[in-house]
UniProtKB/TrEMBL annotation:
It comes from Drosophila ananassae. This is Hexosyltransferase. Belongs to the glycosyltransferase 31 family. Its EC number is 2.4.1.-. One of its GO terms (molecular function) is hexosyltransferase activity. The chain crosses the membrane at residues 21-44. Keywords: Glycoprotein, Glycosyltransferase, Golgi apparatus, Membrane, Signal-anchor, Transferase, Transmembrane, Transmembrane helix. Its main location: Golgi. Signal peptide: none annotated. It is a single-pass type II membrane protein.
Amino acid sequence: MFAWHKIKKIKKTVALRKNSFRLFLQVGVYIFIYYVAISLTQIYEHTEKICSRVLRIPGRTALHRDWTPFSSFNLSDYIQKFEESSLLVPSGLCEKHSLVTIFVTSPVNGFRQRQRIRKSWGNTSNFNYPAFFKMHGHLKGFYYPPSKNRMVLYGKYLSAKEETLRASVRVVFIVGRHQRTTLNNRATIRKLRKESDIYNDVIQEDFVDTFNNLTLKSVMALKHFNKKCFDTSAYFLKADDDSFVNVPNLIHILLGGTLPAYKPHHKMQIRLTATSGVFLGHELSDIKPIRQMCNKFHVPQYIYPEAVFPRYLSGSGYLMSRDVARQLYEAAWHTEIIPLEDVFITGLCSLNAKLNPVHSPLFSLRKVQDLCDFRENIVQHFFKDPNKKREWHNMTNNQIKCK
Ligand SMILES: *[C@@H]1O[C@H](CO)[C@@H](O)[C@H](O)[C@H]1NC(C)=O
Ligand SMILES: *[C@@H]1O[C@H](CO)[C@@H](O)[C@H](O)[C@H]1NC(C)=O
Ligand SMILES: *[C@@H]1O[C@H](CO)[C@@H](O)[C@H](O)[C@H]1NC(C)=O
Ligand SMILES: *[C@@H]1O[C@H](CO)[C@@H](O)[C@H](O)[C@H]1NC(C)=O
């Protein structure tokens, strides 16, 4: 008897080997394809230039990544006008009076940047009006002090006097939620809850937190202001989380003072006398929508067909009196959504409400040259530097003077 079964066995193992080799190859190919796909999407997300070279899609017909022609552009499909919908809200939000309530839009996992703000300009118990004299006191006589009228008018927001004067200013962060609840995201949520327990300054809203949903976030800020802060706050300020808000300067301006004219353009400063209809920021005009698909700011024609945007204020920071905040919130319900929040709120809604946004040179978009840029403005764009700690140190170091 020849060992037939042995031959069969050998044949079997050869076949098995062949099979497993094929399987191995297939898995390898799948993994390879997977990584290529991942890197392609990463390239697509992170490098607009490569993207626009590879995907030469004509801008006019290009689809927006998140807002397709089938999306609803009606706010009421995303936000409820009056009903509470927040996942997290600071307890007692706006129960106390604040001269101004500052809403900082922040991504749900933006822990580090929020902490930076809390430790620097956002600590309004530390960085309050007395710091004004540290920064500018040596130029007394070269700027207008607060006006008496406004000091009386806003008396309920103020305490102490002269160089120890303080104003109540509230800073809150507004974040969205994750698309999916993965394990990783659950950890983030736990961290966020803890953060909120400690600092009581986080509003979390029930919509997906993406760049293209920033419009919903800003409308949410207006909603909270109108619902909870309207009777207790005189002003609303929206800031990006990479903006630096010079709170002492802000208080000084709201009380009717001016800053020393450090730079020629500072001479354009106005002394605030109005208490309603105030709507200030860095004006942008004649801005054309970007029609390239790969650009972060892409706005296709089906979202906004006109050739230019109406005049608007940069989203890095805009300030308004409470009546303006109310009118903008009302107008938002009759204005079609566009993914750029500043164009939407300060351009389109403002146009619908027949409001007048005004340029102020104190809202700076220029690149930061030195710490004086932080001292000489109300809002300075781009506070996101590794040197931040030292910058902050210098900021409040009254040995260092700006000219
Ligand atoms: C804010 O400043 C006060 C007074 O200097 C300090 O006690 C407090 O710890 C600071 N808060 C944060 C979050 O750094
Ligand atoms: C914005 O949020 C809504 C509601 O959560 C969600 O359905 C939508 O996909 C989000 N849009 C973008 C552009 O992320
Ligand atoms: C959104 O829908 C509501 C109710 O259906 C309507 O009153 C409102 O005018 C719509 N808004 C826009 C911008 O079309
Ligand atoms: C802070 O001040 C020190 C000493 O005056 C200076 O050397 C340093 O460059 C300053 N840093 C920043 C970020 O302005």
